[in-house]
Amino acid sequence: MIDPQPVVLEGYGVRLEPLEPSHAAALVAAAADGELWKLWYVAVAQLVPERIADWMEIALAGQRAGTMLPWVVRELTSGDIVGSTRYHDIVPAIDRVEIGFTFYAARWQRTHVNTACKLLLLEHAFDTLGCKVVGFRVDNLNERSQAAMEALGARKDGVLRHFQARLDGSPRDTYVYSILAEEWLSVRQRLEERLRKYGDS
Fold first, then answer.
1. Whole-angstrom Cα distance, residue 35 to residue 47?
2. Which of 89, 104, 130, 140 lies 20 to 30 Å from 42 when distance is taken between CA atoms?
3. Planar angle of CA 142, 198, 143, nearest 5 degrees
4. Domains (ranges, CATH) in the chain?
5. 164 phi and psi, to 5 degrees?
6. DSSP assigned state of 124
7. What is the pLDDT of residue 201?
8. Which residues of the chain have pLDDT under 70?
């Protein structure tokens, strides 16, 4: 049975640090780079000064309950906090976590950062915690994330239609993807190859 606990994960030019209340201002600043709060179909829309306290409390309450494990993302060449990601919907009885609630400041999108974070999170899930499966959920409107999941080698399990409300109240269809432990080696190779390409650019 897996037992995810707060831990620093570092490598590939980034460091994932357990989320703390002191990170609030840096996260608001990261979300402001590109005005990510305008993306009303993702949770980053809450990352504005008047709502950041609620966003932080939900993440940290999930950590206390054992259902979430949130991190901030620090890019090591700049030293800046450039985003956040987390494990969520943790189900220890079946050795499952999901990765989501992810965002990066606009200037760090389409760089090594997302690939590095996914590699660290998947390494920790499969190689350290012993997960049997890692899942992902993507809004049907978020075509960029859908393409990223498929490029990663995650399998599309299906669509949960009219599954939940977005922040604006509209109903969301959710695309569900997963990676099984036996698929991890292939996915890892894809991620490592992608990182090498960033290094050559």
1. 10
2. 130
3. 10
4. 9-200 (3.40.630.30)
5. -160, 170
6. I
7. 45
8. 34-46, 200-201
Q: Tell me, what's the pLDDT at 23?
A: 97
| Among 66, 85, 64, residue whose Cα is nearest residue 74 | 85
Helix (H, G, I), strand (E, B) or coil at 19: coil
Please provide the size of the chain in residues: 201
Between β-strands 14-18 and 9-11, what pairing exists: parallel, antiparallel or unpaired?
antiparallel
Residues 6+ apart with CB under 8 A from 39: 45
**CB burial of residue 30 (10 Å; 0-12, 13-18, 19+):** buried
Instruction: Give the whole-angstrom CA distance, residue 136 versus residue 101.
Output: 10
Question: Per the structure block, which two tokens stand in for 169?
Answer: 């109240």
The reported pTM is 0.92
